[in-house]
Write a structure and sequence with these properties.
Layout: H1 2-23, H2 30-44, H3 53-71, H4 74-79, H5 81-106, H6 112-121, H7 127-134, H8 141-171, H9 176-212, H10 218-236, H11 241-256, H12 263-305, H13 312-346, H14 356-364, H15 370-376, H16 392-418, H17 427-458, H18 466-481, H19 490-520, H20 526-543
Helix pairs in contact: 1-2, 1-12, 2-12, 3-10, 3-11, 3-12, 5-6, 5-8, 5-13, 6-8, 6-16, 7-8, 8-9, 9-10, 9-11, 10-11, 10-12, 12-16, 13-14, 13-16, 14-16, 15-16, 17-18, 19-20
Length: about 550
């Protein structure tokens, strides 16, 4: 019963955090508010949460990474794949080596393999934290796509480095060849498991639907279970479950293009996934806050045992490690941009200058999050000889401190760094949208004309003017979309379109209020009310 109560309190904290963030001054990221509420729960609760890392990985990460992979723009991933791979893999290894030696130099009581383990687990950026920071900072879309792609892929490389650093701490041995082979299998096996499970489940679901029909709610439940299936299959194969969940999400985005799902299913599924995403994201950061007091206590004890009686050294170490991570990230990003410019010069392509503010923004936007927390909690309690794992509590505390400080630095510095900057619009997006609208409108007009003829032939008893009149009304709507606009009047046309949108929203709001009023006075039934309101809501969603 206590566990259920704690879960309910945490869910309430997630709900409260959204409202608290709106009333707080400044641009405080939602994760920081949720961490604070988690710490408050820990202070007021007599029963702490015993966080099982394996269960945490299974319950929270697969659906969130699946959804991120599903919704991330694929064109952005493919266009900047070189930069994303450099950040997701090269930067992780660079960070592990550089930060590992820095940590061991600052804290000699922490063995070098343990220092490498700490550097490895704080190297991956967190997609949830990155998205939260982007919501309050004017980050360019292309840079945001790069950061999202990096955070989706660097989890696997960071966790692999962490695994081998821990193994070296446990056994005192490290094999580069074994590490390389294992890393290849983790990546290849994880991607294959994610793609294979998604295609298999999709094919089986379509076969069942074709032969037995589609039970209400079944496609949504299958879709929710898909990331867990991909994750578990990959783990059984000793591959990366995290990459499997990401690959499953990316595969699902291509499966979705087949258009087999019904419109009502897509609408309901989107609402369900939005709720799942908000809930799991929030609970993860509330859990992090709830763990902090106990972690701080254990880290202080570990520090005293190493000879430091002043606990302020914990803050010094945390700030130094966070600063070191920022310096390493800045150096890697700068070198990567210089290499890109050199390639452009070598290929005789137009060269772009490095924008110092965007360079700093890319450095500061690499916030850490719950992947780091979940990974560091998997540190063993004892060594093979039965002695305690060296500096375990201190390592966990440092990882949690890096999470908090990276969020704080990003949330404070990014809005000020990017304030006043104007980013050039990406015209290809508007061109793609216009092309899609025109092509779809032409297809719709052709379909209407064909359907009109078929309906008139199948229903000869009806007034012959009914179908032409109905078709003319529907076609007029699509012809409005196809109206050619010369460049000089394009701005005026878009203002007219915006005005029409506002008028339609006002009319729909009046419709909905009238339907509710009729239902309140028992002029129509609840069932009729719900049906009409749903139609109005769906129409309104088109204009929002």
């Amino acid at each position: 019963m206590d566990s259920i109560e704690v879960v309910l309190v945490m869910m309430l904290a997630v709900v409260a955090s959204a409202y608290i963030r709106r009333v707080l001054p400044g641009t405080i990221p939602l994760p920081l508010v949720q961490i604070g509420l988690g710490a408050l729960i820990a202070a007021k609760s007599e029963h702490g949460v015993d966080l099982e890392p394996d269960l945490f990985f299974l319950v929270f990460l697969p659906p969130l990474l699946f959804l991120d992979g599903w919704r991330i723009p694929k064109s952005g991933l493919l266009r900047d794949k070189g930069t994303i791979i450099e950040l997701a893999f090269g930067l992780v290894v660079f960070t592990v080596i550089g930060a590992g030696f820095l940590i061991h130099w600052m804290i000699p009581a922490m063995p070098l393999p343990v220092a490498f383990a700490l550097a490895a687990i704080v190297s991956p950026t967190d997609p949830v934290a990155v998205s939260s920071i982007a919501a309050t900072s004017p980050i360019p879309k292309r840079l945001m796509h790069i950061l999202e792609g990096e955070s989706l892929l660097n989890d696997a490389s960071g966790l692999v480095c962490f695994r081998f650093a821990v193994a070296a701490a446990m056994t005192g041995a490290f094999s580069l060849q074994t590490a390389a082979i294992t890393f290849f299998w983790l990546v290849a096996g994880g991607i294959a498991a994610g793609v294979g499970v998604t295609w298999l489940i999709t094919w089986l679901q379509r076969w069942l639907t074709r032969h037995f029909g589609e039970p209400p709610g079944s496609p949504i439940l299958v879709n929710l279970l898909m990331p867990f299936g991909a994750y578990l299959v990959a783990e059984r194969l000793h591959a990366s479950g995290i990459l499997a969940a990401v690959a499953a999400g990316i595969t699902m985005s291509y499966v979705e293009l087949s258009g087999h799902a019904m419109a009502s299913t897509r609408i309901q599924r989107s609402a369900v996934w939005d709720t799942v995403q908000f809930s799991l994201n929030g609970v993860m950061f509330v859990l992090l806050g709830e763990q902090l007091p106990e972690i701080f206590h254990l880290a202080g004890t570990s520090l005293e045992e190493s000879g430091h009686l002043n606990r302020w050294w914990l803050l010094v170490y945390a700030v130094a490690i966070t600063a070191g991570l920022l310096v390493l990230r800045f150096a890697w990003v700068w070198a990567s941009l210089r290499l890109t410019i050199f390639k452009q010069k070598f290929r005789h392509q137009p060269r772009q200058k490095i924008n110092p503010r965007l360079l700093l923004a890319t450095t500061l936007a690499g916030a850490r999050g719950t992947i780091t927390l979940a990974g560091v909690l998997t540190l063993p309690l004892v060594l093979p000889d039965g002695s305690p794992f060296p500096a375990r509590a201190l390592t966990i505390f440092m990882a949690c401190s890096v999470i908090l400080l990276s969020l704080l630095v990003a949330s404070i510095a990014l809005p000020r760094l990017l304030a006043g900057m104007t980013f050039p619009a990406e015209p290809e997006e508007q061109q793609e949208e216009d092309l899609a609208r025109r092509t779809a409108a032409n297809a719709a007009i052709s379909a209407i004309e064909k359907a009109q003829i078929e309906l008139m032939e199948s229903d000869a008893c009806i007034d012959p003017d009914v179908y032409p009149q109905a078709a003319a009304r529907v076609i007029a709507f699509y012809e409005h979309k196809l109206k050619e606009v010369d460049p000089e009047s394009e701005q005026a046309w878009r203002k007219t379109d915006s005005a029409e949108r506002e008028l339609r929203l006002a009319a729909l709001a009046a419709e909905r209020n009238t339907v509710f009023d009729l239902a309140r006075h028992d002029h129509i039934s609840d069932e009729t009310s719900r049906k009409l309101v749903r139609e109005i809501d769906l129409m309104e969603a088109r204009y929002r």
